[in-house]
Write a structure and sequence with these properties.
single chain
Length: about 120
Amino acid sequence: MAVTSILSSIGKALGKIFKVGTQVATAAEPFVDVLYPGISPLFTAVVSEVVKAEGMSIAAGAQNGTGPQKLASVLAAVEGEFQNFAKTNNLPTPDSAQVTAAVNGLVTFLNALPGVPVAAAENL
């Protein structure tokens, strides 16, 4: 297979992942906001970063076995979002374990939906 064909296939797969991730976040936002008012921007940010990390691992040909690296990437990108959310809502600042649990919980949620190509960090 030619390099351009491989790159084209990877590009198509990434496009599908980003589209599905965005659709999930958009569809879930109203429900998330009803249950937890004001949290949808944080939810969307985490979904975006999870989908981005998964897409990057696919592009690098390292989708399996890279859960800890993907998790670290997502945590680095969203930790500030969690701190801002807590500060804005007069909540205690979450520690690393709480942010990690929230991200892993969202990954589990995404994995439970059919057709969402995201793998839980602990399962990779």
